[in-house]
Amino acid sequence: MSVLLNSQTEKKYEALKKYINKLDNAAVALSGGVDSSLLAKVCFDVLGDRSIAITIVSPMLSKKELVDAQRVASVIGIRHILLPEKEIESEVRQNPVNRCYFCKKIEFGLVIEEAKRYGVKQVLDGSNADDISDYRPGAKAAKELQVKSPLQVVGLTKNEIRELSRMFCLPTSNKPAFACLASRIPYGEEITGEKLERIEKAEVFLQSLGFREMRVRSHDTIARIEVAPTEREKLFDTELMDRVSQKLKSYGFLYVCMELEGYSLGSLNRKVKK
Questions:
Q1: Residue 28 confidence (pLDDT)
Q2: What topology does CATH give the domain 181-273?
Q3: Is the Cα torsion angle 157, 271, 251, 87 positive or negative in sign?
Q4: 34-37: long-range contacts at Cβ-Cβ below 8 A with a sequence spacing of 24 or more?
Q5: Using only C-alpha atoms, what is the Rg of the chain?
Q6: CATH topology of 7-167 equal to that of 181-273?
Q7: Topology adopted by domain 7-167
Q8: What is the pTM of this model?
Q9: What are the b/e assignments for 44-53, b being 16+ CB within 10 Å?
Q10: Nearest one of 25, 43, 8 to 126, comparing CA atoms
Q11: What is the residue-level pLDDT of the chain in tens, covering all 274 positions?
Q12: Domain boundaries in the chain?
């Protein structure tokens, strides 16, 4: 190990390996994010060719996330299967407060069926210990379909997962948290391919300007930009603000505004929590 782990992280890491070692085989639902990437790495280290990674390629997955998933799978060496999902199912498109439940029920169902084609019985996802405190209706779908969350079971937090990812030199170790593009649209507002496309373009543009942690929330024709609190000062530049506004309007937004408090994980869940 080139990176020294603290005793607590090392203990959880050993527990994770033991958990995975008890499985005959495993399919990791790989999103390209920090958590599922580490899980895929440990699964491959423990199970070898008895592990696979499956990524659902849907309109709600950004192109960058797909590239990241392919890249990390290649670095790990795990067999990587891409499953196209071209349509947004009606339950998801209507965007109820439990949208994530319907979405995960559909996507995990597809992953389970695909895994069976390769003789793999157990599907794993990258939920971690920190996720328990957030509003995540998708966890209910995972439980109903018997999808396991080993990182959560052994108590690994996001920071500990990053620590392990650095130890393994995974390209995702310092990657900012990311969620599906549908999470940018307020509950009750219909999800369409057109909206997802302009959200993705807007976020790619902001990334090209050097912003790391940010979201473009889409309120119908209004783009509400959230950047990390520490990055707000960079955006408080009249020339840059004009440039951002013009670019986002060229993607189809009529109005462009900014969340003054900055980026906050799951900010659209505030209404649900209240």
A1: 98
A2: Alpha-Beta Plaits (3.30.70)
A3: positive
A4: 34/126, 34/158, 34/161, 34/162, 34/165, 34/172, 34/173, 34/175, 34/177, 35/126, 35/127, 35/128, 35/151, 35/158, 35/161, 36/125, 36/126, 37/69, 37/72, 37/76, 37/126, 37/165, 37/170, 37/172
A5: 19
A6: no
A7: Rossmann fold (3.40.50)
A8: 0.91
A9: bebbeeebbb
A10: 43
A11: 456 778 899 999 999 999 999 999 999 999 999 999 999 999 999 999 999 999 999 999 999 999 999 999 999 999 999 999 888 999 999 999 999 999 999 999 999 999 999 999 999 999 999 888 777 888 999 999 999 999 999 999 999 999 999 999 999 999 998 889 999 999 999 999 999 999 999 999 999 999 999 999 999 999 999 999 999 999 999 999 999 999 999 999 999 999 999 987 766 766 665 5
A12: 7-167, 181-273
Residue-level pLDDT at 272: 61
User: How is residue 49 written in tokens?
Assistant: 């060719």
Check the CA dihedral 240-198-107-49 and report its sign.
negative
* Lookup: tokens for 83: 């499953």
